[in-house]
Structures
1.
Amino acid sequence: MINQIYYSESPLWHEKIGVIHALLERVKISEERSADVLQLRKLNRIMSIHASTAIEGNNLTLGQVTDVINGRHVLGTPKDIKEVQNAWQAYKELAHYNPWSVADLLKAHGLMTAALINESGLFRSVDVAVVRNDGKVLHRGAAPEEVPDLVAQLLGWGHASEAHPLIKSSTVHFMLEHIHPFRDGNGRIGRLWQTLILSKWNPLFAWMPVETIVHNNQALYYKALQDSYNNGIDCRPFINFMLDAVENSLYKYVDIATETAAKEFGVGVNVGVNVGVKAGIIDKLREQPALSAKELALLLNRSARTIERHIRELREQGILIRIGSDKTGYWQIKDDKTNE
């Protein structure tokens, strides 16, 4: 069913996609300024693996995940350690997967879940459901006998669709969660496959910490998944969320690259001058939610660049949510914690 309709379009997507295109140029420039691009990319890959496994309940810290990947001994459960090792292997093969190949999807799942579950690298043969802690069923996966055809239809749609890769990748991510083709590992595979689709559009996405942004906004991630079921299946709320996550991941990559370059060139970081900036931003936005970064900079006597950086961090933490467009929208405060 190549003509399958999975979403209703939003008039805001065009503007968001334009912002992401511009940010990709900034990412490219930031990489060029880094003396060790390979180390920068590895750092972001490790962050992505830590975030994606943590979303599913893995208890290893970022430092422990780094040690596992570097072959050091770590005090953790064998399951948690194996999940990280598997994810590292699955992501290492990213350049070799065909995003529209069912066989490659199964191969990736096999790497991701090796020695962890029955039917690793295979579509499930049993019914599954996503159940909340109180026992309420949030979602039931497709019947196991329907899974192979549904996945083939989805990937066939993705291969033929002329939708922008940002929209297409988010749709495939959501629909893999909806079909729930595997006994376990559906979330990790959904996030990996979105990264894969985006990396085929622009290779920089192979190293973007999109999963980190999702992890930092996990409640909103699950809400976006649920909201996409409000009127049958319409991926629009999930696509909205993922566009914001992708945008924030690009900002984060630029920040990490900038910090790495500063350390490489021996530039000191003045931490004290920024103390209280986040709290000031939140206080001002609570009074006037439509303030721009430039207006906040004037009110707080800081540079616009400093304000923009703190706003990005607050967005990554799920504390600030942008409602509407960059030009006419406003900020909504979701959390009063400022994490100085």
2.
Amino acid sequence: MQKITIKDIARECNVSLSTVSLVLNNNPRISEATRAKVQESVRRHNYQPNNNARGLASRSSLAVSVVVPHLGHVFADVYFGEIISGIYDQAADDGYKVMLDIANEKFLSTKEYLGLLRSRKADGMLFIGANITDEFPMEFQESAYPFLLVNHFYPKTSLNYLAMDYRESAHKAVEHLVGLGHRHIGLVRGTNTHTGIEFAEAFEDYCIELGIDPQHLHTVDGGDDWDLESGYAATQQLMQKSKKITAIMAGNDRMAIGAISYLDKKGIQIPGDISVMGVDDIHSAAFSSPSLTTIWHDLYELGKQSFKRLLALYKKEITTCQERLPVTLIVRDSTGPVSVIE
């Protein structure tokens, strides 16, 4: 028996190839009557769609570009790994392939990011790890190409993004630490992302709102790498700033674990002398010593939802996306009541 093709389905239903492809891709623009007719033909012939044929018929590449920053060992990084895993799994569920691209000098200077979309090699682009100095995303403000920032945003722009709620993360962190009686707090902040800046500013503002003396808030820049070494070095600076600090808030878990490492080396008890807290709840947070209190950011789900939003932008089911995902406080052993309340 000759294998049924998408052309056969289209001919039998008296519709175009693109219409069949749109039905197979669950596009909402197709009328219910046409959808039912095509689906019945597909079932009757037990037609198994070929991804390449589907893509050609709908002018879809059935692929998306995921752009990550030009960093050493970026694919081994747990933060990027969780988000990319979510994107990949959701893309696979929707019949899409994922192309990983690194925003290196060649990628940017040749504007390969636009070439991928113009040539229809990708239906859309997700950008993970943007920072405040990146300029190429601005080209997508006036572009019709589907583009979404993942866990980042640019204030006062129309760029699409999906991010964790960093202001709410700051509120939960402050409520936890202040609720434990901490009044002298150190903050290791990241300054090269707008989400990091937003978290730090919201943390400081909410501390003051809850009655913390601004002079008792001590802040150091954790650098651009957001890693263990950054947290270690920043904690050393904090301890030189003030001997009264009873809690350290780090902008992410890796810096928090670096802070724990420094304090442990100096014989400072955690949380007896100083409480330490992070953000993200990466896998190793539960296995640090002591286990890390943190704000859970479901990075895997963020990846899945980011792909869903990008696909919705591509299919024109939505026209914009500037959304935040909820966060959760995870209390473990690295935070406790302050030993002396002033």
